[in-house]
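Sequence in, structure out.
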Amino acid sequence: MQKIIQQKYQARQLISYASKIEEKGFDASQDIDELMQEAQSELFRLAQQSSKTDYTQINPVIDSAYEQLRKAAERHDGLSGVASGFDELDKVTSGWQKSDLIILAARPAMGKTAFCIVYGKEHGNRQPRSCRLLFHWK
């Protein structure tokens, strides 16, 4: 998925730059040699961006994973995230994780608002100093 998004971004950059070059190409006062040089250097820059590879040292990754495992082992409820207040849901999700974006969607009158209110209440009772946000949109 990340690769698709990156490719679409690069395609938009390429299209945007191509339209700028096209405009400059129709400008009679523009020196063609300079325009060719500018186009080449920009295309080279875009190509360099697409061939960049991120490398990460393994030690910090291992340390982070070890720390997460240690914290999970210390918990008595077996969850690696924040408890939702619904035991069956927690068994499936291991609790809400830091990286989770939770979107609750269902047909009208199915109990979405009630679910969120109960979750907020349970979470507030278990972790009174934590921060919660509830956005309700109809």
